[in-house]
Amino acid sequence: MEKHGIDAAWISSPENHLYLSGFANPDGRIFITAEKAYLFADFRYAENARRLCSGSFEVIEPKGAMIKYLPEIIAECGAVYVGYEEATLICSEFERLKNELSGCEFAHVSALLTELRRTKSEDEVKKMAAAQDIADAAFNHILGFINPSRTEAEVACELEYFMKKNGADGIAFETIAVSGKSSSSPHASPAQRLLEPGFLTMDYGATVEGYRSDMTRTVFLGEPDERLRAAYEAIRQANEQVEAALRPGVTGKDMHELAERVLADHGFAGKMGH
Fold first, then answer.
1. In this predicted structure, what is the pLDDT of residue 22?
2. Strands, E, within the chain: which ranges?
3. What does the pLDDT average to over 205-214?
4. I need a surface site. Which of 63, 135, 163, 266 has the fewest CB within 10 A?
5. Can you give the pTM of this predicted structure?
6. Burial degree of 156 (CB within 10 A; 0-12, 13-18, 19+)
7. Residues near 204 by Cβ (< 8 Å), separated by ≥ 6?
8. What is the pLDDT of residues 140-162, one digit of tens each?
């Protein structure tokens, strides 16, 4: 903040709240000055916040709007330039912030926070790996669960149940498990219908202390015909060639174009929507 000429910062996004405090509160706010850091948590979260964060933050349980507490803090610390998360803060909250701190100037801090988060610590990498280990184990488990008597919804629920039972704090996003004709739609929703013969596409992930895994796996129910085998082989070769080419210094654009070329060579030009 000092480097960027910012005296204080209003942190509003759940992701950066968790990153800076280690405490998950989707409705909380953090206010950071040069001297102190304040964590705002209503009655639902305040007790746990004091237990986990009181060593680094002054925990405030607001009576009414959180922003109403800022003028007094600003008066004590003399802050003039206040940072806010322009990428995520809703307009109405920004207007209230400007009204309460009418004597302050405002600066963007989203890029600053992104820069801080970009390089992962050893602890962060461990959490990411743990989230992926759970997702891997879920895939091994689901292979023994799938059969024609299951519905898409049952497969999705079983994946989520297994991950939560085996160490996940929650799911990373809404689980996808779609079969047959629906399997070609990457973000179709699982339905209460029996699994259809053909491809079964599963897209899911686990969350561990805010860090998420994300994996997509496709299996086949029944026997694929020649055209479907060719499609699978094209995807497999694109995947393996890109993985073999990955190294420091190559760009995502380069890898995307490599995958496109492999698919085109197999007769699937222009079929990759990403």
1. 93
2. 8-11, 29-33, 37-40, 58-60, 81-84, 105-108, 170-171, 176-179, 198-204, 206-208, 211-212, 215-221
3. 97
4. 63
5. 0.88
6. buried
7. 135, 138, 156, 159, 160, 163, 171, 172, 173, 175, 176, 177, 214, 215
8. 999 999 999 999 999 999 999 99
